[in-house]
Design a protein that fits this description.
eight-stranded mixed beta sheet; alpha/beta; Glycerol-3-phosphate (1)-acyltransferase; 204 residues; 7 helices
């Protein structure tokens, strides 16, 4: 935490802005963060905005299996990441993710499923909704937070700026009877809305 937040992020980026509109999350809620995915920096800046220093909870990231290889995988594992095979997720991985949610941990799922550098319109993956539905059988306090992440450069460069904009928390209990397609459309709209706010704040 000291190395990534106090040294790397402060040295690399010239300015940061966090927009949360003073939202409040009910006590004892299980939180799933649903951010846009624009850069490999996303995990670090999200941890700065919603990590242990801010929420008293670590961010636990669900990432693709390919991202957990080699030195990058070693580093990501120590940042709280665990991998999932998007084409055929194992039961053990799903159980692990559900257990994190049930225990009130702070799970991060990138609904776009991959880095979408230019913010192209994508159909969101079904994993977040399916996971939240399964977890809702064990706890009824699941909150999903749509987040927009933006950088002053499409590919962040030295002394770039970044901004995170947090949308209104979504209570999963209100969407248990909604289809995956309908929910993903709603979530995507909220994520894009927050990203537009973030983009304006970094001059794009």
């Amino acid at each position: 935490m000291f190395v990534t937040q106090d040294i790397i992020l402060r040295f690399f980026f010239s300015k940061k802005k966090i927009i949360n509109n003073c939202f409040s999350i009910p006590n004892n809620s299980s939180i799933i963060l649903a951010p846009t995915h624009r850069s490999r920096w996303d995990g670090l800046v999200l941890t700065m905005a919603m990590g242990r220093r801010i929420t008293n909870k670590d961010c636990r990231f669900m990432v693709t299996k390919s991202e957990m290889k080699g030195m990058q995988g070693w580093f990501l594992k120590r940042l709280g990441c665990f991998s999932i095979n998007q084409l055929s997720p194992s039961l053990s991985t799903l159980r692990f993710a559900i257990d994190l949610v049930e225990k009130g941990e702070q799970l991060v799922v990138f609904p776009e499923g991959k880095i979408n550098k230019y913010g192209r319109k994508l159909v969101l993956r079904e994993g977040l909704y399916r996971l939240a539905r399964l977890a809702s059988k064990k706890t009824d306090s699941i909150i999903i937070i749509p987040i927009g992440i933006a950088y002053s450069e499409v590919s962040p460069k030295f002394r770039s700026e970044f901004c995170l904009s947090f949308g209104k928390p979504i209570a999963m209990t209100d969407y248990l009877n909604t289809t995956i397609k309908e929910f993903n459309k709603f979530l995507n709209q909220n994520m894009m809305k927050e990203e537009e706010i973030a983009l304006k704040n970094v001059g794009r």
